[in-house]
Amino acid sequence: MAYTETTTTSYGGRLSRSLKGIVGGLIAFIAGTALLFWNEGNYVKTYKALNEAQDATIAVDSVAERDPALNGKVIHASARAETEDILRDPAFDVSVNAISLQRSVEYYQYEERSSTTTRDKIGGGEEKVTTYTYSADWQSEPINSSEFKDPKYQGSNFTLYQVQDQEQFAKNVSFGAYSLPDFFIESIPANEPVDVTLGEENQRKLEEAIRQHPRGPRLPEDTNAVAPAVVHVQANTVYLGENPSAPKVGDLRITFSSAQPQDVSIIGKVNGSTFGRYVAKSGKAISRLETGIVSAEEMFAHAQAENTFLTWILRLVGVVLVCAGLRGIFGILEAIAKVLPFLGDIVGVGVSLVTGIIGLAWSLLWIAIAWLTYRPLIGVPLLVAAVALVIWLKKKAPKAPSTPPSAAIT
Description:
It is built from 6 helices and 19 strands. By secondary structure, it is α+β, with helices and mostly antiparallel strands. The chain folds into 2 domains: about 10-50 and about 305-395; about 65-110 and about 135-295, no CATH class. Strands 1, 6, 7, 8, 11, 12, 13 and 14 form an 8-stranded antiparallel β-sheet that branches.
Protein backbone atom coordinates (compact mmCIF):
# COMPACT_ATOMS: atom_id res chain seq x y z
CA MET A 1 0.00 0.00 0.00
CA ALA A 2 1.27 3.47 -0.87
CA TYR A 3 2.11 5.98 1.82
CA THR A 4 1.16 9.64 1.29
CA GLU A 5 2.44 12.80 2.88
CA THR A 6 0.74 16.19 2.54
CA THR A 7 2.61 19.43 3.08
CA THR A 8 1.24 22.96 2.90
CA THR A 9 3.30 26.04 2.12
CA SER A 10 2.02 29.54 2.83
CA TYR A 11 2.27 32.38 0.35
CA GLY A 12 5.10 33.90 2.40
CA GLY A 13 6.92 30.58 2.52
CA ARG A 14 6.54 30.26 -1.21
CA LEU A 15 8.06 33.70 -1.77
CA SER A 16 10.90 32.87 0.61
CA ARG A 17 11.60 29.65 -1.31
CA SER A 18 11.64 31.58 -4.59
CA LEU A 19 14.12 34.09 -3.16
CA LYS A 20 16.41 31.20 -2.24
CA GLY A 21 15.86 29.85 -5.75
CA ILE A 22 17.40 33.03 -7.14
CA VAL A 23 20.71 32.15 -5.50
CA GLY A 24 20.58 28.56 -6.74
CA GLY A 25 19.55 29.75 -10.18
CA LEU A 26 22.45 32.19 -10.35
CA ILE A 27 24.90 29.42 -9.42
CA ALA A 28 23.42 27.09 -12.07
CA PHE A 29 23.51 29.88 -14.67
CA ILE A 30 27.19 30.66 -14.02
CA ALA A 31 28.14 26.97 -13.87
CA GLY A 32 26.31 26.25 -17.15
CA THR A 33 27.99 29.18 -18.90
CA ALA A 34 31.44 28.12 -17.71
CA LEU A 35 30.77 24.51 -18.72
CA LEU A 36 29.71 25.55 -22.24
CA PHE A 37 32.86 27.59 -22.78
CA TRP A 38 35.18 24.95 -21.32
CA ASN A 39 33.47 22.11 -23.20
CA GLU A 40 34.01 23.66 -26.63
CA GLY A 41 37.65 24.34 -25.87
CA ASN A 42 38.13 20.81 -24.57
CA TYR A 43 36.57 19.37 -27.75
CA VAL A 44 38.90 21.36 -30.01
CA LYS A 45 41.98 20.51 -27.91
CA THR A 46 41.10 16.81 -27.91
CA TYR A 47 40.30 16.84 -31.64
CA LYS A 48 43.63 18.48 -32.46
CA ALA A 49 45.54 16.23 -30.05
CA LEU A 50 44.06 13.10 -31.66
CA ASN A 51 44.95 14.36 -35.13
CA GLU A 52 48.45 15.22 -33.93
CA ALA A 53 48.85 11.77 -32.39
CA GLN A 54 47.51 10.09 -35.53
CA ASP A 55 50.03 11.95 -37.70
CA ALA A 56 52.82 10.85 -35.36
CA THR A 57 51.71 7.21 -35.10
CA ILE A 58 53.81 4.51 -36.74
CA ALA A 59 52.09 1.25 -37.66
CA VAL A 60 54.13 -1.71 -36.39
CA ASP A 61 53.35 -5.08 -37.91
CA SER A 62 54.97 -7.16 -35.18
CA VAL A 63 56.09 -6.57 -31.60
CA ALA A 64 57.58 -10.05 -31.21
CA GLU A 65 60.97 -8.39 -30.76
CA ARG A 66 61.88 -5.02 -29.26
CA ASP A 67 63.07 -2.40 -31.71
CA PRO A 68 65.32 0.25 -30.08
CA ALA A 69 64.56 2.58 -33.00
CA LEU A 70 60.95 2.81 -31.81
CA ASN A 71 61.82 4.13 -28.37
CA GLY A 72 60.06 7.45 -27.81
CA LYS A 73 57.85 6.93 -30.89
CA VAL A 74 54.05 6.60 -30.93
CA ILE A 75 53.07 3.25 -32.38
CA HIS A 76 50.00 1.26 -33.27
CA ALA A 77 50.28 -2.48 -32.85
CA SER A 78 48.11 -5.55 -32.34
CA ALA A 79 49.25 -8.58 -30.35
CA ARG A 80 48.12 -10.98 -27.67
CA ALA A 81 48.03 -9.73 -24.09
CA GLU A 82 49.36 -12.63 -22.02
CA THR A 83 50.03 -13.24 -18.34
CA GLU A 84 51.16 -16.05 -16.12
CA ASP A 85 49.89 -14.37 -12.95
CA ILE A 86 47.34 -16.21 -10.82
CA LEU A 87 44.71 -13.97 -9.24
CA ARG A 88 42.99 -15.23 -6.10
CA ASP A 89 39.99 -14.35 -3.97
CA PRO A 90 40.62 -16.54 -0.91
CA ALA A 91 37.30 -15.66 0.78
CA PHE A 92 35.47 -17.58 -1.97
CA ASP A 93 38.22 -19.96 -3.08
CA VAL A 94 38.44 -18.38 -6.51
CA SER A 95 41.73 -18.78 -8.36
CA VAL A 96 42.30 -18.01 -12.02
CA ASN A 97 45.05 -17.24 -14.51
CA ALA A 98 43.79 -13.91 -15.80
CA ILE A 99 44.60 -10.28 -16.55
CA SER A 100 41.99 -9.16 -14.02
CA LEU A 101 39.55 -10.71 -11.55
CA GLN A 102 36.38 -8.90 -10.57
CA ARG A 103 34.02 -9.59 -7.69
CA SER A 104 30.64 -7.85 -8.03
CA VAL A 105 28.17 -7.78 -5.15
CA GLU A 106 24.43 -7.13 -5.40
CA TYR A 107 22.03 -6.64 -2.51
CA TYR A 108 18.32 -7.40 -2.42
CA GLN A 109 16.83 -4.25 -0.91
CA TYR A 110 13.68 -2.22 -0.62
CA GLU A 111 13.78 0.95 -2.71
CA GLU A 112 11.67 4.03 -2.05
CA ARG A 113 10.09 5.84 -4.99
CA SER A 114 8.05 9.02 -4.82
CA SER A 115 5.72 11.05 -6.99
CA THR A 116 4.35 14.48 -6.13
CA THR A 117 1.25 16.37 -7.20
CA THR A 118 0.92 20.07 -6.45
CA ARG A 119 -2.26 22.09 -5.98
CA ASP A 120 -2.26 25.88 -5.82
CA LYS A 121 -4.58 27.54 -3.32
CA ILE A 122 -6.33 30.89 -3.50
CA GLY A 123 -4.18 33.44 -1.72
CA GLY A 124 -0.88 32.04 -2.99
CA GLY A 125 -0.51 28.98 -0.78
CA GLU A 126 0.50 25.58 -2.08
CA GLU A 127 -0.44 22.03 -1.15
CA LYS A 128 1.82 19.12 -2.09
CA VAL A 129 0.78 15.50 -1.88
CA THR A 130 3.71 13.09 -2.15
CA THR A 131 3.05 9.39 -2.63
CA TYR A 132 5.75 6.93 -1.61
CA THR A 133 5.85 3.35 -2.90
CA TYR A 134 8.22 0.53 -2.02
CA SER A 135 9.47 -2.48 -3.93
CA ALA A 136 12.38 -4.86 -3.48
CA ASP A 137 14.97 -5.48 -6.17
CA TRP A 138 18.70 -6.08 -6.66
CA GLN A 139 20.86 -3.04 -5.96
CA SER A 140 24.56 -2.35 -6.41
CA GLU A 141 24.77 -0.77 -2.95
CA PRO A 142 22.88 -1.28 0.33
CA ILE A 143 20.08 1.26 0.81
CA ASN A 144 19.65 3.07 4.12
CA SER A 145 15.99 2.47 4.98
CA SER A 146 16.07 4.41 8.25
CA GLU A 147 15.15 7.54 6.28
CA PHE A 148 12.15 5.97 4.49
CA LYS A 149 8.97 7.99 4.94
CA ASP A 150 6.64 5.06 5.64
CA PRO A 151 7.21 3.88 9.25
CA LYS A 152 6.36 0.32 8.18
CA TYR A 153 9.43 0.23 5.92
CA GLN A 154 11.83 2.18 8.13
CA GLY A 155 14.73 -0.06 9.08
CA SER A 156 13.51 -2.83 6.77
CA ASN A 157 16.77 -3.12 4.84
CA PHE A 158 19.76 -5.12 6.04
CA THR A 159 22.40 -7.44 4.58
CA LEU A 160 23.09 -10.99 5.76
CA TYR A 161 26.83 -10.67 5.19
CA GLN A 162 29.38 -7.89 4.85
CA VAL A 163 31.33 -8.14 1.60
CA GLN A 164 32.48 -5.51 -0.90
CA ASP A 165 33.15 -5.28 -4.61
CA GLN A 166 36.73 -6.09 -5.47
CA GLU A 167 38.92 -5.90 -8.56
CA GLN A 168 42.43 -7.32 -8.93
CA PHE A 169 44.88 -6.88 -11.79
CA ALA A 170 47.84 -8.91 -12.93
CA LYS A 171 51.20 -7.27 -12.32
CA ASN A 172 52.87 -8.73 -15.39
CA VAL A 173 51.07 -8.66 -18.74
CA SER A 174 53.14 -9.14 -21.85
CA PHE A 175 52.44 -7.67 -25.27
CA GLY A 176 54.83 -9.45 -27.59
CA ALA A 177 58.30 -8.55 -26.36
CA TYR A 178 56.92 -5.59 -24.39
CA SER A 179 54.90 -5.31 -21.19
CA LEU A 180 51.65 -3.41 -20.76
CA PRO A 181 51.51 -0.56 -18.22
CA ASP A 182 48.81 -0.45 -15.54
CA PHE A 183 46.57 2.01 -17.41
CA PHE A 184 46.36 -0.39 -20.37
CA ILE A 185 45.87 -3.46 -18.15
CA GLU A 186 43.03 -1.79 -16.25
CA SER A 187 41.22 -0.87 -19.48
CA ILE A 188 40.79 -4.49 -20.60
CA PRO A 189 37.17 -5.41 -19.74
CA ALA A 190 36.49 -8.30 -17.35
CA ASN A 191 33.61 -9.98 -19.18
CA GLU A 192 34.45 -13.70 -18.90
CA PRO A 193 32.61 -15.60 -16.11
CA VAL A 194 34.77 -17.43 -13.56
CA ASP A 195 33.30 -20.59 -12.07
CA VAL A 196 33.35 -20.77 -8.27
CA THR A 197 34.28 -23.92 -6.35
CA LEU A 198 33.64 -22.97 -2.74
CA GLY A 199 35.60 -25.07 -0.26
CA GLU A 200 34.00 -26.67 2.79
CA GLU A 201 35.82 -24.41 5.26
CA ASN A 202 34.74 -21.15 3.63
CA GLN A 203 31.22 -22.46 3.08
CA ARG A 204 30.97 -23.32 6.80
CA LYS A 205 32.21 -19.84 7.78
CA LEU A 206 29.67 -18.19 5.50
CA GLU A 207 26.80 -20.30 6.82
CA GLU A 208 27.73 -19.59 10.44
CA ALA A 209 27.98 -15.84 9.81
CA ILE A 210 24.59 -15.78 8.08
CA ARG A 211 22.80 -17.81 10.76
CA GLN A 212 24.33 -15.68 13.51
CA HIS A 213 22.98 -12.51 11.94
CA PRO A 214 20.18 -11.12 14.17
CA ARG A 215 17.76 -11.20 11.23
CA GLY A 216 19.22 -14.21 9.46
CA PRO A 217 17.54 -17.60 8.94
CA ARG A 218 17.54 -19.84 12.00
CA LEU A 219 18.28 -23.52 12.36
CA PRO A 220 15.18 -25.72 12.72
CA GLU A 221 14.14 -26.45 16.30
CA ASP A 222 14.00 -30.15 15.48
CA THR A 223 17.63 -31.23 15.76
CA ASN A 224 16.92 -34.17 13.47
CA ALA A 225 15.64 -31.98 10.68
CA VAL A 226 17.93 -31.02 7.84
CA ALA A 227 18.71 -27.30 7.88
CA PRO A 228 18.05 -25.61 4.54
CA ALA A 229 21.16 -24.33 2.79
CA VAL A 230 21.87 -20.62 2.99
CA VAL A 231 24.94 -20.65 0.71
CA HIS A 232 24.32 -21.60 -2.92
CA VAL A 233 26.97 -21.85 -5.62
CA GLN A 234 26.06 -21.98 -9.30
CA ALA A 235 28.62 -21.40 -12.05
CA ASN A 236 30.17 -17.97 -11.37
CA THR A 237 27.66 -16.89 -8.69
CA VAL A 238 27.56 -17.33 -4.92
CA TYR A 239 24.08 -16.70 -3.50
CA LEU A 240 23.74 -15.94 0.22
CA GLY A 241 20.16 -16.56 1.27
CA GLU A 242 17.62 -19.35 1.59
CA ASN A 243 16.23 -19.51 -1.93
CA PRO A 244 17.82 -18.02 -5.07
CA SER A 245 14.48 -18.42 -6.88
CA ALA A 246 12.62 -16.39 -4.25
CA PRO A 247 15.00 -13.69 -2.95
CA LYS A 248 14.32 -11.91 0.32
CA VAL A 249 15.50 -8.58 1.65
CA GLY A 250 19.00 -9.07 3.05
CA ASP A 251 20.10 -11.66 0.49
CA LEU A 252 23.30 -11.16 -1.49
CA ARG A 253 24.37 -12.22 -4.97
CA ILE A 254 28.12 -12.31 -5.65
CA THR A 255 29.39 -12.87 -9.20
CA PHE A 256 32.93 -13.35 -10.48
CA SER A 257 34.31 -12.40 -13.88
CA SER A 258 37.74 -12.01 -15.41
CA ALA A 259 39.68 -10.59 -18.32
CA GLN A 260 41.37 -13.52 -20.01
CA PRO A 261 44.51 -13.36 -22.18
CA GLN A 262 43.35 -12.06 -25.56
CA ASP A 263 44.25 -10.08 -28.66
CA VAL A 264 44.35 -6.31 -28.13
CA SER A 265 45.32 -3.30 -30.20
CA ILE A 266 47.07 -0.30 -28.70
CA ILE A 267 48.18 3.22 -29.50
CA GLY A 268 50.94 4.33 -27.15
CA LYS A 269 54.38 5.84 -26.87
CA VAL A 270 57.19 3.29 -26.60
CA ASN A 271 59.05 3.75 -23.35
CA GLY A 272 61.82 1.16 -23.21
CA SER A 273 60.13 -2.19 -22.65
CA THR A 274 56.68 -0.74 -21.98
CA PHE A 275 54.42 2.10 -23.10
CA GLY A 276 53.38 5.55 -21.98
CA ARG A 277 50.92 8.19 -23.14
CA TYR A 278 51.66 10.58 -25.99
CA VAL A 279 51.43 14.17 -24.76
CA ALA A 280 50.25 16.56 -27.47
CA LYS A 281 51.33 20.21 -27.78
CA SER A 282 48.12 21.24 -26.01
CA GLY A 283 49.03 19.08 -23.03
CA LYS A 284 46.40 16.42 -23.79
CA ALA A 285 47.63 12.88 -23.07
CA ILE A 286 46.66 10.34 -25.73
CA SER A 287 46.66 6.55 -25.44
CA ARG A 288 44.15 3.89 -26.38
CA LEU A 289 43.53 0.17 -26.08
CA GLU A 290 40.78 -1.80 -27.79
CA THR A 291 40.15 -5.51 -27.65
CA GLY A 292 40.66 -7.50 -30.85
CA ILE A 293 42.58 -6.64 -34.00
CA VAL A 294 41.66 -3.05 -34.79
CA SER A 295 43.45 -0.78 -37.26
CA ALA A 296 44.92 2.57 -36.26
CA GLU A 297 42.42 4.40 -38.49
CA GLU A 298 39.49 2.69 -36.77
CA MET A 299 40.88 3.37 -33.30
CA PHE A 300 41.35 7.08 -33.97
CA ALA A 301 37.89 7.23 -35.58
CA HIS A 302 36.40 5.65 -32.44
CA ALA A 303 38.27 8.16 -30.26
CA GLN A 304 36.99 11.12 -32.32
CA ALA A 305 33.44 9.74 -32.18
CA GLU A 306 33.67 9.44 -28.39
CA ASN A 307 34.99 13.01 -28.18
CA THR A 308 32.06 14.27 -30.26
CA PHE A 309 29.51 12.28 -28.25
CA LEU A 310 30.85 13.55 -24.92
CA THR A 311 30.87 17.11 -26.23
CA TRP A 312 27.20 16.94 -27.21
CA ILE A 313 26.25 15.47 -23.83
CA LEU A 314 28.04 18.30 -22.02
CA ARG A 315 26.52 20.87 -24.37
CA LEU A 316 23.08 19.61 -23.44
CA VAL A 317 23.97 19.69 -19.74
CA GLY A 318 25.28 23.24 -20.11
CA VAL A 319 22.16 24.50 -21.91
CA VAL A 320 19.90 22.85 -19.33
CA LEU A 321 21.87 24.45 -16.48
CA VAL A 322 21.67 27.88 -18.11
CA CYS A 323 17.92 27.63 -18.81
CA ALA A 324 17.17 26.14 -15.41
CA GLY A 325 19.27 28.83 -13.77
CA LEU A 326 17.35 31.62 -15.50
CA ARG A 327 14.08 29.89 -14.60
CA GLY A 328 15.17 29.85 -10.97
CA ILE A 329 16.21 33.51 -11.03
CA PHE A 330 12.91 34.71 -12.49
CA GLY A 331 10.71 32.13 -10.76
CA ILE A 332 9.90 34.79 -8.18
CA LEU A 333 7.56 36.39 -10.76
CA GLU A 334 5.46 33.22 -10.92
CA ALA A 335 5.44 32.95 -7.12
CA ILE A 336 4.17 36.52 -6.77
CA ALA A 337 1.41 35.90 -9.33
CA LYS A 338 0.33 32.67 -7.59
CA VAL A 339 -1.89 34.71 -5.29
CA LEU A 340 -4.38 33.84 -8.05
CA PRO A 341 -3.54 30.30 -9.23
CA PHE A 342 -4.67 30.78 -12.85
CA LEU A 343 -2.64 33.99 -13.11
CA GLY A 344 0.40 32.23 -11.68
CA ASP A 345 0.05 29.46 -14.28
CA ILE A 346 -0.03 32.01 -17.10
CA VAL A 347 2.99 33.86 -15.75
CA GLY A 348 4.79 30.53 -15.19
CA VAL A 349 4.32 29.50 -18.82
CA GLY A 350 5.55 32.90 -19.98
CA VAL A 351 8.59 32.81 -17.70
CA SER A 352 9.47 29.30 -18.87
CA LEU A 353 9.13 30.26 -22.53
CA VAL A 354 11.13 33.49 -22.28
CA THR A 355 13.90 32.04 -20.07
CA GLY A 356 14.12 29.04 -22.40
CA ILE A 357 14.64 31.22 -25.45
CA ILE A 358 17.03 33.57 -23.66
CA GLY A 359 18.89 30.61 -22.20
CA LEU A 360 19.28 29.04 -25.65
CA ALA A 361 20.46 32.36 -27.14
CA TRP A 362 22.92 32.85 -24.27
CA SER A 363 24.21 29.30 -24.70
CA LEU A 364 24.71 29.77 -28.44
CA LEU A 365 26.47 33.05 -27.73
CA TRP A 366 29.00 31.44 -25.39
CA ILE A 367 29.49 28.45 -27.66
CA ALA A 368 30.19 30.94 -30.45
CA ILE A 369 32.61 32.89 -28.24
CA ALA A 370 34.42 29.66 -27.43
CA TRP A 371 34.64 28.74 -31.10
CA LEU A 372 35.82 32.26 -31.95
CA THR A 373 38.61 31.65 -29.47
CA TYR A 374 39.51 28.18 -30.72
CA ARG A 375 38.10 27.88 -34.27
CA PRO A 376 37.11 31.33 -35.68
CA LEU A 377 35.78 30.03 -39.02
CA ILE A 378 33.09 28.04 -37.22
CA GLY A 379 32.55 30.55 -34.42
CA VAL A 380 31.42 33.40 -36.69
CA PRO A 381 28.28 31.63 -38.05
CA LEU A 382 27.36 30.54 -34.51
CA LEU A 383 27.72 34.11 -33.27
CA VAL A 384 25.50 35.35 -36.11
CA ALA A 385 22.86 32.74 -35.19
CA ALA A 386 22.94 33.76 -31.52
CA VAL A 387 22.59 37.48 -32.38
CA ALA A 388 19.74 36.69 -34.81
CA LEU A 389 17.91 34.81 -32.07
CA VAL A 390 18.29 37.76 -29.68
CA ILE A 391 17.00 40.19 -32.34
CA TRP A 392 14.03 37.92 -33.09
CA LEU A 393 13.23 37.71 -29.37
CA LYS A 394 13.39 41.49 -29.06
CA LYS A 395 10.99 41.96 -31.98
CA LYS A 396 8.54 39.46 -30.51
CA ALA A 397 8.54 41.16 -27.11
CA PRO A 398 5.30 43.12 -26.43
CA LYS A 399 5.71 46.84 -26.91
CA ALA A 400 4.51 49.34 -24.33
CA PRO A 401 1.47 51.32 -25.58
CA SER A 402 2.33 54.86 -26.66
CA THR A 403 0.67 57.75 -24.77
CA PRO A 404 -2.04 59.40 -26.94
CA PRO A 405 -1.62 63.11 -27.52
CA SER A 406 -3.80 65.37 -25.34
CA ALA A 407 -6.96 66.63 -26.98
CA ALA A 408 -6.90 70.32 -27.96
CA ILE A 409 -9.12 72.59 -25.79
CA THR A 410 -11.55 74.63 -27.81
